[in-house]
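Protocol step 4 of 6.
Sequence for Phosphoheptose isomerase (Sulfurimicrobium lacus) entered exactly as in the expression construct, tag removed. Do not edit the line below.
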Amino acid sequence: MDLVSRIGHHFTDSAHVKLQALDLLAEPIALAAEQVVQCLLSDGKVLSCGNGGSAGDAQHFASEMLNRFEMERPGLAAMALTTDSSTITSIANDYSFELIFSKQVRALGQPQDLLLAISTSGNSRNVIQAIEAAHEREMGVIALTGKGGGPMGELLRPGDIHLCVPSDSTARIQEVHLLIIHCLCDAIDCLLLGVE
Ligand SMILES: O=C(CO)[C@@H](O)[C@H](O)[C@H](O)[C@H](O)COP(=O)(O)O
Ligand SMILES: [Zn+2]
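Step 5 output, structure tokens:
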């Protein structure tokens, strides 16, 4: 296949997975936005985590909360657990890479907070441990996964929200995760600002 055909295939495939995800996930995304707003109105914050491209997604979400998305509004409480290299390297060095997020959740998490846990496979041990720590702290969890959700999906409790992209391709799942994050930011702004 020539390069232009390959690129065409990526675009078509991405659009296709997005439309399939719309049918499955529109309602749970709206529920997740309502859960974030309830958390913020109770003086809670959203802690976000993930590895690789999903670390970027965790930071992308936190920056759009802390700064802004498309509407003018005060900053909202969120924090990516992927950014402090001193904290992350010391936990990984002294204990284990598996604990880089869970130790931060145990230190910062309060029952009114939420964890946004992102993994395309649902297999990442450090994200799984973060969910376990969030449950210990009585926090709710919004999980962004794909590939059927893996062990992460099985770990979720009633009241948690599982947004599982119907694809086995890491790239396609990440593309839908970013779209979900933008839908969440837009819905949160609409709910907070009373926009219909
Ligand atoms: O962005 C990509 C691939 O598109 C990679 O950096 C990818 O995020 C990394 O391999 C992650 O470690 C994968 O972790 P996960 O999504 O399975 O939890
Ligand atoms: Zn990627």
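Step 6, annotate. The mean pLDDT is 98.
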